[in-house]
Specification:
alpha+beta; Rossmann fold; Archaeosine Trna-guanine Transglycosylase, Chain: A, domain 4; ten-stranded mixed β-sheet; five-stranded mixed β-sheet; binds S-adenosylmethionine; RNA-binding; Methyltr_RsmF_N; RsmF_methylt_CI; cytoplasm; SAM-dependent_MTases_sf
Length: 556
């Protein structure tokens, strides 16, 4: 690979005797990997069922090295969200952030969602993940990847960091800033980055300025005692230690938490000594030296592409207070769910939270379970969702209000669907209606109506005319055993691939089963599952299973 002369010169200056080993890596293939989706399966369970998929990536739970010829993107399991294809070093930042179930987590520069799906796995369905990117085109892939992973507690935003900081304040226990950067660490992966670097001599400076602006806003979003992980996939000291030095100089309430890694992983320390005197932003002494506690991943030392990560902790507050609080509320939810179950069919979704309505109309599931309520709701004007998805369609469903349907009626349609199809399903959150679309939003968020959510919650489906249509996102976030009617296929069967290609199926009626795997009664929606994982919806008429998989989710 031909490297930009200026890049090669700078790397020789920095690395000196190590430079040859570093430059030699450009003659060997890049590393690649996949990460098993903890929301669906553990690595042990994956390997037990499907065999070992590759060498383990030591720094990441569920991470496996792959070879070019493996083509993991061409396997049904990829479509089912059982794993995400991700460069091995790119798995490090989310791992270092120390996310616990119940945390409030923000992924500020998130598209296309590699680290968001990893963070969602760490949350294990508890707490909230706000995943954001300011490039609206890129948020489509972000939303789809988050949905494919089955993250039911995520909201997807298309916002500028300033506006998030205004709306949320210091709300988050964990913030990830996987910053836009000059991408020097990805030259082996993407030669276009090499050309881009060459075309713009000021690339490094331009990105450094961007990163510093983003970090300033990110600081406002971290709760006292919370943590911020800053990462790039580049080598330049200006974009790495330099951006963190300025951050520390401007934010005395943050400090570096040293990254501890076993020597065999090969990580290098941060290099404050590579900063110019101006590059230190006036940082001195111990604070400057603490930058050595940040981490550099080098392709000649580790089995991964170039990366940088800095873990920054904000002082004050009780460490992990968010997780503790959320754990408590999780226990409370479980207790209240049991109470509601005991009350039989009175269990209900929360009252509607109108996107335009006053804040005091918002209510939690737990409150609604005590007082099922929808019938009293007044009709509201529908409002087009941002990037709305009819049944999770990639570009359709412009969020037109269903003619004549009130929000309360739409909620009732969802309830009727859930009673028929998902009798034991007990999600938590608050129900949001936007146009035809119904979403379940994690509890406890501040008002976000003035922002641009691409998904203000888990997209459950759309209620138009007289029927509720469940979304692909709903299917992907369910378990096979949630469904009162399912068709269970194995990835070895031709039928599985036919379904994923969009074909309708003619299964023997005995294969349409209930949650326990016994023959199911009734007709209507059925959850199609492959290797016990939901793949999408079909409509069963007693002889034919009509394929309801949307084109954007099909096998290609
Ligand atoms: C390195 S990529 C993120 C990769 C992503 N974290 C992942 O793991 O898939 C950086 C992202 O930052 C976004 N971005 C650039 N400037 C931004 C800003 N001011 N606010 C939020 N996102 C920004 C870009 O659109 C890009 O998607």
């Amino acid at each position: 690979m031909r490297l930009p002369a200026q890049f090669e010169h700078s790397m020789r200056e920095l690395l000196r005797e190590e430079a040859e080993a570093f430059l030699a890596t450009y003659a060997s293939p890049r590393t690649s990997g996949l990460r098993i989706n903890a929301l669906k399966l553990s690595r042990a369970a994956y390997e037990e069922r499907f065999g070992a998929a590759g060498d383990r990536i030591p720094w990441t739970a569920g991470g496996l090295y792959t070879a070019e010829e493996d083509r993991p993107g061409k396997h049904l399991h990829y479509y089912l969200g059982l794993y995400y294809i991700q460069e091995p070093s790119a798995m490090l930042p989310a791992e270092l952030l120390g996310v616990l179930p119940g945390h409030r987590v923000l992924d500020l520069c998130a598209a296309p969602g590699g680290k968001s799906t990893q963070l969602a796995g760490k949350l294990a369905g508890r707490g909230v993940l706000v995943t954001n990117d300011n490039a609206s085109e890129r948020t489509k892939a972000l939303a789809k990847n988050v949905e494919r992973a089955g993250a039911a507690n995520a909201i997807v935003m298309n916002e500028e960091p300033e506006r998030l900081a205004e709306a949320f304040g210091a709300f988050f226990d964990r913030v990830l800033v996987d910053a836009p950067c000059s991408g020097e660490g990805m030259f082996r992966k993407d030669e276009e980055m090499v050309r881009e670097w060459e075309r713009h001599p000021d690339t490094v400076q331009r990105y450094a300025a961007m990163q510093r602006g983003i970090l300033r806003e990110a600081a406002k979003l971290v709760a006292p005692g919370g943590k911020l992980l800053y990462s790039t996939c580049t080598f330049s000291p200006e974009e790495n230690e330099g951006s963190v030095a300025l951050f520390l100089a401007e934010h005395p309430d943050f400090s570096v938490e040293k990254v501890e890694a076993p020597p065999e992983w090969g990580f290098g320390p941060g290099r404050p000594d590579w900063l110019t005197p101006e590059g230190t932003a006036g940082l001195e002494g111990e604070r400057l030296a603490s930058l050595a506690g940040t981490v550099r991943v080098w392709p000649h030392r580790s089995r991964g592409e170039g990366h940088y990560a800095a873990l920054l902790v904000r002082e004050g507050g009780a460490a992990d207070a968010g997780a503790a609080v959320a754990d408590k509320s999780g226990a409370q939810d479980a207790a209240e769910t049991r109470e509601a179950e005991a009350a039989g069919r009175d269990w209900s979704f929360p009252p509607l939270a109108s996107v335009d309505g006053p804040a005091d109309r918002r209510a939690s599931v737990s409150a609604s379970m005590r007082t099922p309520a929808a019938a009293k709701e007044k009709p509201r004007p529908g409002r087009a969702p941002q990037g709305g998805h009819g049944r999770g369609r990639d570009s359709g469903g412009k969020g037109r209000p269903a003619a004549g349907q009130t929000d309360a009626q739409k909620r009732e349609m969802l309830m009727a669907f859930a009673r028929d199809m998902l009798p034991d399903w007990r999600p938590s959150g608050r129900l949001i209606v936007r146009g035809d679309m119904l979403y379940l939003q994690p509890d406890g968020l501040p008002p976000i109506e003035r922002l641009h959510p691409v998904r203000p919650g888990w997209l459950l489906g759309s209620a138009s005319k007289h029927r509720f249509e469940p979304s692909q996102a709903l299917a992907m976030g369910l378990r096979m055993t949630d469904a009162a009617r399912s068709l269970r296929l194995s990835s070895d069967e031709d039928e599985a691939l036919k379904y994923m290609k969009g074909e309708s199926l003619h299964p023997d009626p005995s294969r349409i089963t209930d949650a326990e795997g016994n023959p199911a009664s009734g007709r209507g929606w059925a959850l199609v599952c492959i290797d016990d994982c939901p793949a999408g919806w079909g409509r069963w008429d007693g002889a034919l299973l009509k394929n309801e998989l949307l084109p954007g989710w099909r096998w290609v």
